[in-house]
Predict the structure.
Amino acid sequence: MTVINAMIFDKHSGAMCCDEQTSIGEVRKMMSSDKIQNIVPSKIRENVKLEAVYGGTGTTAIGDEIRRGIKMRLRENYDNALNRSKDSADNFTSTDDIFQIAYEEMMKVKHKHIDDVINGYFNFGTVDYMQGFYNDIKNDKIEINQKELKEKVFDLINWKNADEVDSIFLNAAIIAGFDRSGEFKICKLSMKTEMLLQMAGSVFETVGSGSDSAQIIFSDYAGSKTLDERRNHIDRVEGMLQLIRATNAAAKFNMGVGGYFNIVLFDSSKDDPAERLFEVSDSKAKLASEVVFAYYNKFIDYETAYELTDELIFKRQKSFEELNSRFLDASADRTKMLRFLRGYKTH
């Protein structure tokens, strides 16, 4: 239960944003989930212009397995290329390759976990089911021919009337990044029965339980932009306002979305890995979400919201305390805005 949002500002930059809430079973929630993580090993980032992050929704452990698999594959591919030549290592992969690797690792994890469930229930695996028999501990051949049993395994594999595998199929992700070409790209992956790998069809993408609310915000905004703007340039601060607004909407209207936000910035025009990929989290991310929330509820004007967002997210020259004071002083009714942000009904 979460929301992962991503937006393309121009051909070389963009951002992602997520919440931090996760559920434990059906009765507990926890505000400490790290949903957007780098999947390019630091050794590669230091030597190659390559950045990619994986923002996952669903079962945390499954997302971690997929990330580990991607990083392992990238590390292995890089080492093999480095053994051939420096030039080969510099060009060892692309963002499109990473998307494909992620898709393959996601399929691998999906098949493994479904196989584990079937083995736990019936003491045979999906390969045995497909061939119609298995060998028991005495190596005797056992035919799989009971109609009800075969139907149950079919349902588990295809997620049909089988809530036992909800935790497997309800996993999805957005991967965003760029390679030596400098082009920023985002794609969506899903573990549902269609096993989706899909490049973003617009300047945004969203996954998770909060994606329905986020889509409304994104669609309305993207529809207001000209074709040239969508293709070539969206003002980064304006885009960030919409990215945070969409995440705010998901947190307001959807179960399982909440807590502080984590904002990740991409800029392929920079050479330093620390500047190419930068995270804004904790207090500054919380203040940014409050600034956007206050603006869309008419407590501050657009110029103030724009200026504060630009400073909090992009310029990053002023302290949190200075920006927080500027935010509070900007409201015509400071007391009412503070009560509103604390959850009181003020209208």
